[in-house]
Recover the amino acids of this structure.
């Protein structure tokens, strides 16, 4: 995600899977996550950031995290044709050449059957700006049987994440909305410096990647993460 979001042509297939799962290892969405997640529709970026849920290629286009959907069976042809494409013509810009080539291969710029689109009404209802605890309480109060399974999976994901990471991610995306990409990188680096001392990253890596016991002992329970706790982590982050 960190590399692809800087590209002019972000191409996915219907089978693509994308995620920003950092909160699950006691970290936060970096590599520009504060910029591109904060620019997703509605509060979809916050949902992706604090749940770490895996999204599809169709979801990526819907969430403004990809530009084109190309069928899987066309990928080999696409790659083989790129070199010939640019050798054959020097008149048109690279942007025009690649745009026309993608269209010739049947690529599309709109999403079909996006789960994010189907659940956006629920995401907006429960993830609109409020505290992480209020988001969990809101989800727990949902009575619409059509979304009960989705609610259950969402709550289960959030209950496993680092509370410190979720609250910090929410602050990060709130600040990222009004910053340039360069400013977001500066902000994320400043947060990283504090995080390596006061965050949950080391424990998350131990539990999920090294020992693989999947039993991280996070520094805080959710109710223990205060405004002062988050302020200390963001102490070197420009607030405007």
């Amino acid at each position: 995600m960190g590399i692809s979001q800087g590209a002019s042509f972000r191409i996915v297939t219907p089978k693509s899977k994308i995620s920003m799962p950092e909160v699950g290892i006691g970290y936060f969405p970096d590599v520009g996550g504060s910029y591109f997640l904060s620019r997703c529709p509605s509060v979809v970026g916050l949902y992706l950031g604090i749940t770490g849920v895996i999204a599809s290629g169709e979801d990526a286009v819907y969430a403004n995290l990809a530009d084109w959907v190309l069928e899987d069976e066309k990928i080999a042809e696409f790659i083989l044709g790129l070199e010939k494409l640019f050798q054959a013509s020097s008149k048109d810009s690279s942007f025009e050449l690649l745009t026309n080539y993608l269209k010739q291969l049947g690529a599309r710029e709109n999403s079909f059957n996006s789960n994010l689109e189907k659940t956006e009404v629920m995401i907006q209802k429960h993830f609109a700006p409020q505290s992480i605890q209020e988001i969990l309480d809101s989800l727990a109060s949902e009575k619409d049987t059509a979304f009960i399974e989705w609610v259950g999976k969402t709550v289960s994901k959030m209950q496993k994440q680092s509370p410190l990471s979720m609250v910090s991610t929410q602050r990060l995306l709130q600040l990222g909305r009004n910053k340039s990409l360069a400013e977001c990188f500066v902000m994320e680096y400043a947060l990283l410096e504090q995080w390596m001392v006061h965050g949950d990253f080391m424990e998350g890596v131990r539990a999920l990647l090294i020992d693989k016991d999947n039993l991280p002992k996070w520094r805080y329970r959710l109710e223990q993460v205060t405004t002062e706790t988050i302020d200390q982590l963001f102490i070197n982050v420009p607030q405007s």
Remarks:
- The chain has a mean pLDDT of 93.
- The two ends are 26 Å apart (CA to CA).
- Residues 32 and 185 are 6 Å apart (CA to CA).
